[in-house]
Amino acid sequence: MENREGTTVSMPRIGDKAPAFTAVTTQGEINFPADYEGSWVILFSHPADFTPVCTSEFMTFASMEDKFAEANCKLVGLSVDGLYSHIAWLRTIKEKIEYRGMKNVEVNFPLIEDITMEVATKYGMIQPGEATTKAVRAVFFIDPKGVVRTIIYYPLSLGRNFDELYRALIALKTADEFGIATPADWRPGDDVIVSPAGSCGAAKDRMDGKEDMQCQDWFFCTKKIDKDVVLKKVLKK
Ligand code: BEZ
User: Could you give the 3-state DSSP secondary structure of residue 54?
Assistant: First the structure.
C-alpha cells in the first residue's frame, strides 16, 4: 500500500505473524510478541494521553483487565507520547478521574512509549488521512503463537466498545476450540455455525437429518454448545 507521499507502507494482516519490536513501557521494557508467547494479547493504540475519549477507554479497559486475564488475554497499550507523559496521565486517572461509577482506577497493563512512531508505523496505526501526528484507535488480537487473528480500527472521535472486544476474544477462542464459526452477534450459549458440507453426500446426510445439527439448507447448519461448556473450555486457556 502507498501513502500520500508515494512511499510504500506495510501493515500486518490477519494470519500474519505479529511484527516484532522491543519497547519501553510503563511496566518496563517488553520484547513483543516473544514475551507473550502462550497468551492471547490485545495490542491497541490510542491517539494521545490527557484526552477525554482515551481516558474513558483506559478506565474501561483497566476495569476489565481481570476479566481478560481470566480468558488468558493480556493487554498492551500504545501511543506516540513519551514515558513521563504516560506515567503522569495514569497517575491523574487514578487520583482524579471518576467516570461511569469507575474511580481510583489503576492501569496495570503496559503502555508503550512510541515517540519515534516506529511501532505505530509497523502496525499501520498512523493513518495520515485521519491524523499525521497521532495513532488511530487500532486493536490487534494476537494469539498464543504470535499470529494476528483480528484487527479493528476506529477513528479518533469514536471510543471503542470494550464488551465487543471481549465478545470477539471469546468467539475467536471458541472457534479454535470447537472447530466452528460464530454467527452475527453470537454470545456464549447461542447456536454456532457448522462448516459447510464438503461433498454432495455430506450435504444429503445433513438434509436427511443424519447429523447432530439443525440445517436451514445444506450450507447453513447450526448446532448447540452450552454456555458453560464454552466457558469451561475458553477461560483460563
Ligand atoms: C480523545 O481521546 O478525546 C481524543 C483524542 C484525539 C482526538 C480527538 C479526541
Answer: helix
Secondary structure of 202-234 in HEC code, one letter for each residue: HHHHHHCCCCCCEEEECCEEEECCCHHHHHHHH
Q: Report the separation in Å between the CA atom of 136 and the middle of ligand 1, taken as the mean of its atom positions.
A: 10
CA 179 / ligand 1 centre spacing (Å): 39
List, by residue number, the catalytic residues.
54
**Fold exhibited by the domain 173-234:** Antioxidant, Horf6; Chain A, domain 2 (3.30.1020)
CA of 126 to the centre of ligand 1 (A): 14
Q: Which CATH code of 3.40.50.10190, 3.40.30.10, 2.40.170.20, 3.40.720.10 fits the domain covering 21-160?
A: 3.40.30.10
Helix (H) or strand (E) run with residue 45 in it:
strand 40-45
The residue whose CB lies within 8 Å of the most ligand 1 atoms, and thus the one to mutate among 44, 45, 54, 89, is 54
pLDDT in tens, 59-112: 999 999 999 999 999 999 999 999 999 999 999 999 999 999 999 999 999 999
